[in-house]
Amino acid sequence: MSLPLHVHSEVAEALRSGRGVVVLETAVLTCGLPAVPWTAAFGPCPNAIDASLPVHLATMRAMIEAIRAAGAVHAVTAILSGQPRIGLSEDELNTLAADRSAGKASTATMATAIAAGHSAGATVSGTLGLCGAVAGIGLPQPRVFATGGIGGVHIGWPTRVDVSADLGELARQQVCVVSAGAKSILDAAVTAELLESLGVPTLGYQIDRMPRFQSPPTDESPRIHRVDELVDAAAIARAHWSLPDRGGLLLCQSPPEETAMRPADVDAAAREAEQTVRVDGPTRTPALLAAMAKLTDGATLRANVDLLVANARLAGNLAMVMGTQ
User: Fold this and answer.
1) Does 276 map to a domain?
2) 241-267, pLDDT tens digit by residue?
3) 10, 13, 25, 65: which is the annotated catalytic residue?
4) In the annotation, is 25 catalytic?
5) Residue span of the structural domain in which 219 resides
6) Total number of domains constituting the chain
7) Is this structure's pTM higher than 0.85?
8) Would residue 140 be called left, alpha or beta, if left means φ above 0 and alpha means ψ between -120 and 50 degrees?
9) Which of these is catalytic: 183, 193, 229, 258?
């Protein structure tokens, strides 16, 4: 039997008091990053993470620390033994990280995981859906969410139709998602057009074009609305939500310069990965990203880890600004 949504007591208190809260997805924990400590095959270890821990857990902990340092409260989302949760204890986080049978739960698959009593990491769409469910148990909805890159329209549109559930859920839920744009395996131009069609404002923090996940934007990248201060992003979010039937927003920032890659290198790795990866469905994105990491001797992985932590830091600062307005 399915269990009701559980919100961690610290998260619930922060929501009630208007304190800044940043929601984190866990698909990156269960299937997005290596579940082994950093190795020489990955190249130099990013300074942001503890090299003695498995990469997926070390990255999640670094994201949590970045949110805490900003003064906000982190809320890690997941399905644990069939119960949807917003906010995990340290023991629960460690248990999920060690559970190699845990997959990922999106908007479309979350009900299956809940009904079967399984554990799963929540994807971007799944996490957004859980944010929307918070109001149903009498708590204010979380408004800020940090991730690496959102899903979108895969390369090959319209011949090959593969569109992430992230876009539809982002259009429905009143949450500001902080990311480094759409994942590099996607068609950025078509993804940006679909976001506009869905009524999702796409903002750039100190940039006016959409970044390319592991690389900064180029002159060919889709144009987005530039904001130079987080107070401006917060004001746009509140104005958007004051209008009827409005959903979420996307706030993009470029990946950190230290590990950001040249767009041409990312594109070449993405094209080669597309030619070699033969799986479809929910496992396709993790397989493509893993293939790209191998093709680039870990460069895409290093960029991914650093941008995840940077996005968590920016989201923490945004949550604190929104909590004071």
Assistant:
1) yes
2) 999 999 999 999 999 999 999 988 888
3) 25
4) yes
5) 6-323
6) 1
7) yes
8) beta
9) 183
